[in-house]
Design goal:
Elements (H helix, E strand, L loop, with lengths): L2 H19 L4 H6 L4 E5 L5 E10 L2 E9 L5 E5 L4 E8 L5 E3 L7 H7 L12 E2 L5 E2 L3 E4 L2 E4 L8 E2 L12 E8 L2 E10 L10 E9 L4 E10 L6 E2 L3 E2 L2 E2 L13 E4 L3 E3 L12 E2 L11 E2 L9 H6 L3 E5 L10 E7 L6 E6 L3 E5 L5 E5 L5 E3 L4 E6 L14 E2 L4 E11 L1
Antiparallel strand pairs: 1-2, 2-3, 3-4, 4-5, 5-6, 7-17, 8-11, 9-10, 12-13, 13-14, 14-15, 15-31, 16-30, 18-29, 19-22, 19-24, 20-21, 20-23, 23-26, 24-25, 25-31, 26-29, 27-28
Length: about 400
């Protein structure tokens, strides 16, 4: 190796070490000038970091994870958001298959409540989905959460995990993948939730085009219990974001039952069979085949916006296949594996053309779908649902894997 190459290698190693140990001062200042912290391995995995703007006087970074098969995942530290996910399709054509915004300002001003935002790509917490009237009883106390989806509380409240700036740590790359670990500590009383909660969310990309999300939450309070339901709120369009509706995508859900909702999208408490209804995706079916049926539950949600009960053995928490989606047009497919008991399928019913995505195109109804692996909505108010209570000192772990292929 000649001298210039030797110098380049040393610069690359130094940059990686700066990202890994989170150096501040002059090193951190110089890092904001462009792509830094690049790491690579024999497998072709790499990660880079660049500034993505500031909000409230705090810097936001974007990390780009890349593998040797051409898959690229871009994650910002604001909300832990998956901003872009590029994956090859038929003819090796690369496309961004998740909906999102091009700028930090759009995420800050348009992505979450109280503006009825879409929550594109964000980490959701403390409690994903809805809690009826924003109320639950725990520790002998009735807690009141903010009402940001009247008359209910949605996705952790007005200042949920989706608009926090998370601390980032680069992991790897190793033979198993390259990762980004995000950390946030939610103080006791934040958005009305009891107990201090320490949360880690780790994204890992490997060379098999798998993007894995590992969640870890620890209740740091010695006496108070709390409730936790963490998920990721990515919207998918396997043809490419901003290109077309997703009604021709074929969906399989590994679920024989679902939880019907009332007029405010709160579960009634009934666990109903999907057989004989438009909610039966036990065989792969085009999303649009029955979405306009005159079924009371479809009328309430203006389409699909419901929790499915995954076919899981009682008490088991192993990874199982939750959903598979294929797009005949592009040849791309997505499989979701999870340790969670449920999955919320939302067919993009409230996208109305007022939001413009990363490609500059308007997002209209049905231009993307969300599959949120989770515990059931409003679980604290339904004793027959799997519990979301996390006791003093207890740790919750869960995982979801997005498997992309063509």
């Amino acid at each position: 190796m000649n001298t210039p190459r030797r110098r380049a290698a040393l610069v690359s190693v130094v940059a990686l070490l700066c990202v890994a140990i989170g150096l501040s001062g002059a090193a951190a200042s110089s890092a904001t000038k462009g792509h830094v912290g690049q790491a690579s391995s024999k497998s072709g995995l790499s990660i880079t970091k660049e500034p993505f703007g500031t909000t409230g006087g705090q810097a936001v970074d974007r990390y780009t994870l890349t593998n040797r098969r051409g898959m690229v995942v871009k994650i910002i530290t604001y909300g832990g958001i998956i901003q872009e996910l590029l994956v090859p399709g038929r003819g090796n054509r690369l496309a961004n298959v998740v909906l999102g915004f091009a700028t930090l300002d759009d995420y800050v001003n348009k992505n979450s409540s109280p503006l009825a935002g879409p929550y594109f790509g964000a980490i959701i917490g403390r409690y994903g989905n809805r809690i009826a009237l924003g109320q639950f009883t725990l520790n002998g106390v009735q807690y009141q959460l903010p009402i940001n989806n009247p008359p209910n509380s949605l996705h952790g409240g007005i200042e949920g995990f989706d608009n926090k700036i998370w601390a980032a740590t680069v992991i790897g790359p190793t033979r198993d993948g390259v990762g980004l670990k995000l950390h946030y500590t939610s103080p006791n009383g934040e958005e009305g939730y009891p107990a201090t909660l320490s949360v880690d969310v780790t994204y890992t990309l490997n060379d098999d085009n798998d993007l894995r999300i590992d969640y870890r939450a620890q209740n740091l309070d010695p006496t108070l219990s709390t409730i936790v339901n963490l998920t990721n709120h990515s919207y998918w369009n396997l043809s490419g974001e901003g290109t077309s509706a997703i009604y021709d995508h074929k969906l399989f859900l590994n679920a024989n039952s679902y939880t019907p909702v009332d007029s405010t999208l709160i579960p009634t408490g009934v666990i109903a069979p999907v057989a004989g209804t438009p909610f039966d995706f036990t065989k792969a079916t085009a999303i649009g085949d029955r979405i306009r049926d005159n079924h009371p539950q479809l009328v309430i949600g203006r389409g699909y916006d419901h929790n499915w009960v995954l076919n899981r053995a009682p008490g088991s928490t192993n990874l199982i296949v939750a959903a598979k989606v294929t797009d005949p047009a592009s040849g791309r497919s997505l499989q979701m594996d999870t340790t969670e008991p449920g999955i919320q399928f939302y067919s993009g019913n409230f996208l109305d053309g007022t939001l413009y995505g990363t490609s500059g195109h308007a997002y209209r109804q049905g231009d993307g779908f969300a599959l949120e692996t989770q515990h059931y909505p409003d679980s604290p108010n339904h004793p027959n649902f799997p519990s979301t209570v996390l006791g003093p000192g207890q740790v919750l772990t869960s995982a979801t894997v997005f498997r992309l292929s063509r």
